[in-house]
Amino acid sequence: MVDIDIDTTALGLIGYPLGHSISPLIHNYALDKLDLNYVYLPFEIEPDQLKEGIQGLRSLKIKGINVTIPYKNDVIPYLDDLDPLAEQIGAVNTINNHEGKLKGYNTDASGFKKMLKEDAGFSIKGKKALIIGAGGASRAVGEVLCQNKIQELHIINRTENKARQLAKKWRENYPAVEIGVKGIAENYYRSIMERMDLIVDTTPVGMAPETDVAPVLAADCFHSNLLVVDLVYNPPETTILRAAKKAGAQTLNGLTMLLYQAVDAFKLWTGKEPEVKDWYQLVLEKKGW
Ligand code: NAP
């Protein structure tokens, strides 16, 4: 841990709740290892306090902030500027405070893309995918899949209207991609499942501490030609991944995506690049994953 003094600069994470997050662990480790006079803190902000929380970042001169569930869309109106990719996606997971001006970025997209390539050997072009969820993470995942020429993309969400809004935007921006949309209707997802190559669960269902819950998709709908990705990384094997693995599917949790997006955020704030392999080792040691 860094020796905190009058020159220490604060970084941190906002969201609600935050109990699942390993961001403080990895960022503080890298700050210490690179001998940087920063500290990374968790700030759990209650849903009706977001505006005041963002204002507090300015007044307390907090240099950099990660944004997690459920605020990736909601922070946008309170920022001064948006990076073009964050604007296109419509979600922010990283904020940089430059002399009181807050600029929003999205590093989830690059983290997700890198994870698919490096950790699953999955090539997006011409494939068929189903996304579960229509929140901040879903926006980044859909954008990456569309930009990289997925052939067919389906989105289902508990609140159907939110999925419809995203589907509309993707149809307008990527007319070559065939887009399907629905609420979480079993007859719908079962009807497309056989031809899917990729399922991405972007909901928090199964995330610690509520790990023992049924997955959004029925446990018997998976098949062995699928890659099933759950963006949740705590616990490392959620109920959806367990069911998918049982059916012989390839599975991946969100840990490496978290690490890749964190590298990009860290670079933005400090100009230095931490080693992903050190972080990976740290998480294995500290969390026993
Ligand atoms: P968000 O903006 O709050 O969106 C959550 C989505 O999940 C919404 O579509 C919501 O549906 C749906 N949902 C929530 N509870 C549900 C339930 N019980 N049943 C069915 N659907 C449910 O959150 P987010 O920022 O996208 O994050 C989502 C998850 O991804 C979190 O677990 C987060 O930790 C994880 N994540 C991981 C990484 C990584 O790097 N590994 C990056 C980003 C996110 P409604 O629209 O109906 O509310």
> Reading side by side through the largest sheet, how are the strands ordered?
2-1-3-5-6-4
List of distinct ligands in this structure: NADP nicotinamide-adenine-dinucleotide phosphate
Percent range for β-strand residues: 15-25%
Tally of individual domains? 2
Structural class: alpha/beta
**Fold-level CATH name of the largest domain:** Rossmann fold
Instruction: Let me know the number of strands.
Output: 12
Order of helices and strands: EHEHEEHEEHEHEHEHEEHEHH
- Known CATH architecture of the largest domain: 3-Layer(aba) Sandwich
The backbone outline, from C-alpha atoms, is: globular
Backbone CA Rg: 19 Å
User: What oligomerization state is this entry in?
Assistant: single chain
How many H/I helical runs? Answer: 10
Mean of pLDDT: 97
Q: State the fourth-level CATH superfamily of the largest domain.
A: NAD(P)-binding Rossmann-like Domain
Low-confidence parts: none
Q: How many angstroms does the end-to-end distance come to? A: 22 Å
Per CATH, the class of the largest domain reads Alpha Beta
Helix content: 25-40%
Largest sheet: 6 strands, mixed
Description:
With 289 residues, the protein is α/β, with parallel strands linked by helices. It folds into 2 domains: 9-106 and 258-287, Leucine Dehydrogenase, chain A, domain 1 (Rossmann fold, 3-Layer(aba) Sandwich); 109-253, NAD(P)-binding Rossmann-like Domain (Rossmann fold), CATH 3.40.50.720. Helix content is 38%, strand content 20%. The chain has helices spanning 23-33, 50-59, 84-89, 108-120, 136-147, 160-173, 186-193, 239-246, 255-270, 276-287, and strands at residues 9-15, 38-44, 64-67, 81-82, 94-98, 101-105, 128-132, 152-157, 178-183, 198-201, 227-230, 250-252. The strands form 2 sheets. A 6-stranded mixed sheet has the order 2-1-3-5-6-4. Strands 9-8-7-10-11-12 form a 6-stranded parallel sheet, sandwiched between helices. A hairpin with a 2-residue loop joins strand 5 and strand 6. Helix 4 (108-120) packs across helix 5. The protein binds NADP nicotinamide-adenine-dinucleotide phosphate. NADP nicotinamide-adenine-dinucleotide phosphate is lined by residues 68-70, 72, 108, 111, 133-138, 157-159, 162, 202-205, 207, 216, 231-233, 254, 257-258, 261.
